[in-house]
């Protein structure tokens, strides 16, 4: 068994003891972690976004911090700030909550654009700049942000540059009746089930898995198919701005890690088809005419996936 498969299986087994629902979402979150990306969990309140984020962090054995976004949250509350020490007559940097390996940013769209932008440098360059001094972030550095897409009062839309920093945008959906029954009965204890999640791997295991993910083979035919999908988004008249090269890179890396999480040493066209929607979802901008006609990003992306021919493919062993 490969290292990445071994690590992901251990984490998933521990996480799924408390997270009841779409287990494919867990695979995708872990793929983003191993690919060095970040995840935006977008769903209505109460569907398990925070439970999933906290349980993944605890099971991974990585340093975890949480940022609860509010309109009065300042950039320095996220990144940290320099504090004057009278005794030594010098400034000392006090790290903010973003200086951790896994950072849960809860209700990201409740933070002001100024505070949201403080995360841009962190997510893109793995560093924080405070008073002209750069501070390197932990490796791995993984942001799990949550957003409520329904409520608009007291929220600030994410800028396109911010959306583009997330490798995937995922939605869990509602659980089945059986899963909901498990969720309800698990809450009978005074202690929330997520508190019982234990670290099942170590930091070095995660780093080794990340190194392995980039070695996963991508056939030329699969790469050509991936590029055809991104090109189709740029040529569709319903889309004002299609997927950028950064989006292509995100899909490529996500497919590598997802294949490894599922125990394969190669990427298939099915991986590309499956991950295109969560990777592209926040990376296209529809024309105003398309919006008036009732089109959504998900609907158009699914149409592109069905339209672009899937290449003939022979598994690489």
Task: Put the structure in a nutshell.
The protein is of the alpha/beta class. 45% of the residues lie in helices and 15% in strands. The protein has two domains: 3-210, P-loop containing nucleotide triphosphate hydrolases (Rossmann fold), CATH 3.40.50.300; 214-307, Orthogonal Bundle (Helicase, Ruva Protein, domain 3), CATH 1.10.8.
Descriptive account of the structure:
- By secondary structure, the protein is α/β, with parallel strands linked by helices.
- It folds into two domains: 3-210, P-loop containing nucleotide triphosphate hydrolases (Rossmann fold, 3-Layer(aba) Sandwich); 214-307, Orthogonal Bundle (Helicase, Ruva Protein, domain 3).
- Helices cover 45% and strands 15% of the residues.
- The chain has helices spanning 3-15, 23-35, 49-60, 75-79, 113-125, 160-163, 177-186, 203-213, 220-235, 245-261, 269-280, 288-292, 297-307; strands at 39-42, 64-68, 80-85, 90-95, 102-106, 127-130, 133-136, 142-147, 168-170, 239-241, 285-286.
- Strand 3 (80-85) and strand 4 form a beta hairpin.
- Helix 2 (23-35) packs across helix 10.
- Residues 38-168 form the ATPase AAA-3 domain.
What secondary-structure arrangement, pairings included, does this model have?
Elements (H helix, E strand, L loop, with lengths): L2 H13 L7 H13 L3 E4 L6 H12 L3 E5 L6 H5 E6 L4 E6 L6 E5 L6 H13 L1 E4 L2 E4 L5 E6 L12 H4 L4 E3 L6 H10 L16 H11 L6 H16 L3 E3 L3 H17 L7 H12 L4 E2 L1 H5 L4 H11 L10
Parallel strand pairs: 1-8, 1-9, 2-5, 5-8
Antiparallel strand pairs: 3-4, 6-7, 10-11
